[in-house]
Specification:
This protein has 337 residues and is α+β, with helices and mostly antiparallel strands. It is built from nine helices and 18 strands. An eight-stranded mixed barrel has the order 5-6-7-14-12-11-8-15. A three-stranded antiparallel β-sheet has the order 16-17-18, covered by helices on one side. Strands 1-4 form a two-stranded antiparallel ribbon.
């Protein structure tokens, strides 16, 4: 049986304290299944399961990113900060650890974080951005898929949906403020800026990846807590450490796609089935319950899933991948053990 990973020695804690089941069960379908999350981080994708344009009506996936892990809080760290850094809602971190939403973290406090996400791989694309998921996935030629939490466009200023290519990259960019944002500054009574030079006040951070969609790019930020939120004017913000890691790997001409899939389904090589649910943030008229049922039926998994766990997840989605296997009766487990 797998357990949660140990934490390196810090202060008096050689190992993390056990996570009580009463804490884990605040997010549906986690208690009996938590041991799986610690080891199911990345799986190989079977080719040909999704159309290159990402528009199959019922996309079905086979890979996960992230893990159930331990984090030793630094002095002054907050749940909001952990949310932005790890790509999981602050409320989910609070529930998992039995904390109140606005709890203050103490330096050295050990926090369980579950940032397991279904990877919406689209063959033919090196960069895949799933808008409701607030995640950008990079598929390097060699090595494991890389998942990055991002900040995206506000509902009144949405990020684009569709194919794109990387046009060019620039370090220490100058921000030429778009006319639309200048107008917003003017309406809000702020000083209207037309150009912001490189430096600590530049909202683009230190790296800019220009996309083929005019006016859009992938960049760093001077507002790290905006990551994993719908907070931008449409561009794709990464944590500064993440953009620094992604920037040298991305090449001019690299193909990408921005998709809109608030409900995702995945089956692992070992037969485990995961569901991930997010709000329809851009109001595309997607019914999560109907979409989940259609995905499961299209994959022929109706008899293998726990519909009670699915309904619980639809009522109170955690925003991460949740195991939804139907548990075998004890007598069947004995026969197969």
């Amino acid at each position: 049986m797998c357990s949660l990973p140990d934490i390196p020695h810090q202060g008096q804690a050689d190992h993390p304290p056990p996570v009580e089941s009463g804490r884990l069960d605040r997010c549906p379908a986690r208690v009996a299944r938590a041991r799986h999350l610690a080891v199911l981080a990345l799986f190989s994708l079977s080719p040909g399961l999704a159309a290159a344009n990402g528009n199959l009506p019922e996309p079905f996936y086979h890979r996960l990113s992230g893990a159930l892990q331990w984090h030793v809080a630094a002095q002054g760290e907050t749940l909001a900060g952990l949310s932005s850094r790890f790509g999981v809602a602050a409320t989910s971190i609070a529930r998992l650890n039995g904390l109140k939403a606005g709890a203050r973290l103490q330096g050295g406090e050990i926090i369980a974080i579950d940032n397991l996400h279904i990877v919406p791989a689209q063959p033919g694309f090196d960069l895949v951005l799933n808008l409701p998921q607030k995640m950008l996935f990079f598929f390097p030629p060699h090595g494991a898929v890389q998942g990055y939490p991002v900040a995206l466009g506000r509902p009144d200023w949405p990020t684009f949906n569709g194919r794109f290519r990387v046009l060019y990259k620039e370090s220490h960019p100058t921000w030429d403020v778009p006319q639309s944002i200048q107008e917003e500054m003017r309406r809000e009574g702020k000083t209207v800026k037309t150009k912001v030079p490189p430096g600590p006040d530049n909202p683009l951070g230190e790296y800019w990846i220009q996309l083929s969609i005019p006016g859009y790019g992938i960049h760093g930020t001077i507002a790290p807590t905006s990551i994993y939120r719908f907070a931008s004017h449409g561009c794709i913000r990464l944590h500064n450490d993440d953009i620094a890691a992604l920037f040298p790997q991305v090449a001019d001409g690299m193909p990408g796609i921005s998709i809109y899939q608030p409900v995702l389904l995945a089956e692992m090589d070992n037969g485990d089935i995961y569901l991930e649910v997010h709000p329809d943030i851009y109001h595309q008229g997607i019914d999560p319950a109907r979409r989940a049922r259609r995905l499961i039926e299209a994959a022929g998994l109706e008899d293998r899933v726990d519909w009670t766990a699915i309904r619980a997840q639809l009522r109170h989605p955690c925003g991460t991948a949740v195991l939804i296997n139907r548990e075998e009766p004890e007598e069947n487990q004995e026969e197969t053990s």
